[in-house]
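Subject: for your reference before the review

Hello V.,

The reviewers asked for a structural picture of the protein, and I figured it would be easier to keep everything in one thread rather than splitting it across files. Below is the amino acid sequence we used in the manuscript, unchanged from the supplementary table.
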Amino acid sequence: MSSSGNNINSVFYAESYHPIQAGSIDGTDILPHDNAVYRSLLCSNASLYDPLGDPKLIGDPYHTIFVGRLSHLTTEHSLHKAMSKHGRVKNLRLVRHIVTGASRGYAFVEFETEREMRRAYQDAHHSIVDDAEIIVDYNRQQLMPGWIPRRLGGGLGGKKESGQLRFGGRERPFRAPLRPIPYEDLEKLGIPPPPEGRYMSRFQVPSPPRKKRRSVEKEEYSYKRSSTDREEFSERSSSRERNEHTSTAGGQKQDSNKRRFLDEERRHGKSSIEREEHLHKWRSTDREERSHSRSSRETEECSSKHRRHHSRSNH
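And here is what came back from the structure prediction:
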């Protein structure tokens, strides 16, 4: 079977937005094919659209889904009830007409966690709300580079009747090209080429962007780590100092005790042999005491290491 035959049921999804590519069924067009694509290309090249300039934007985009094709009868209350089946809803904005106040058929729903957002992204797509089959996508307005909305000729999806279908999204992915790919022309226009060899099936669900670890969290982790290291170094230094002090004091005490022992033996008139026997016994007793003291210190150090390990695990 040829590679073209293998690509018949293969698709791929856009990771960034380019107006000309979005208007192409296989992502390889190099010319706009309708006036709306021209309009969105103009907005893109002239940077006339700021995706973060909407004052109504609230919440974490990585916790937010886009809900489209809503019934005009759907209210904030009914949508909240439907989305609560998939997780804890933190914020909800049903987009309404600025003059009439009527629903425009789409909304943004923010969940408490990214995991709940992903659950809704997976399970709520093509579910029924107020007798309408809805579509669910991630928050492309804030997370997709180069995004241009439908009102400016961009967007994704659409209906055939409109004559302005847009490809590359969850509802209408790009089809794997069956014709030669014009790599040079795509590169000149800044259009990413199709990912040959890495196509997906139509039934695979594309994963939304994942939230990267914030620099603040890294700084906090680094600070906690350095604080723990400083505490361990301080404890080790203190332990060494205590051991050295104990060893020095013990040596001085041993010499002093030895001299006092010999003086007492001489005063009692004992022979050198008797003195040696008593000295041997005294040394054996002293070694036992020092061994017991060393064992106590080792037990204390093991307990201190265990406490530090437990403290680090809690961090």
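For the response letter, the relevant points are probably these. The radius of gyration is 38 Å. The CA atoms of residues 10 and 201 lie 5 Å apart.

Happy to draft the paragraph if you're swamped.

O.
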